Amino acid sequence: MQKLVNGTSIRYIVELDKKARERVAEARQEAARIETEAENKKNKLRADYNKQAKERLAEMENSYRSEAEKKIAEIEAKRNEKIRAFDEILSQNREKLMDEVFEAVTGKKRRN
């Protein structure tokens, strides 16, 4: 009877060990699956964040570029108006200015 109990006990222990090893293997597989899933989620979140950041930067760049182009256009318009006004004044006073410069350089009145 002792042999039967010992044989049954050993088989029982072996069976428990086998089941425990199976559970450990399943737990390791589940842990690996969870780790892979977490890594995939992390990569997706990072990719989504990078995409959103690039889109936001592009929006900001376009906004600032548009604003800068407007300011440049305003400055150029003011510059062109000043050049036009200067050219007009120069055109109206060309003869007088030429006379003044000639006299300042030569000390004599310019002939007309």
Could you describe the 3D structure shown?
The protein has 112 residues and is mostly helical. Helices cover 94% and strands 0% of the residues. It has one helix and no strands. It has one helix at residues 2-106.
Key traits:
single chain; 112 residues; mainly alpha
**Major beta sheet summary:** none
Low-confidence stretches: none
Shape: rod-shaped
Helical run tally? 1
Give the beta-strand count.
Answer: 0
Average residue pLDDT? 91
| Range of strand content | under 5%
SSE succession: H
* Rg from Cα: 46 Å
Distance between the termini: 147 Å
Structural class: mainly alpha
- Helix percentage range: over 70%
Give the topology, please.
Layout: H1 2-106
What is this entry, summarized?
The protein has one helix at residues 2-106. By secondary structure, it is mainly alpha-helical.
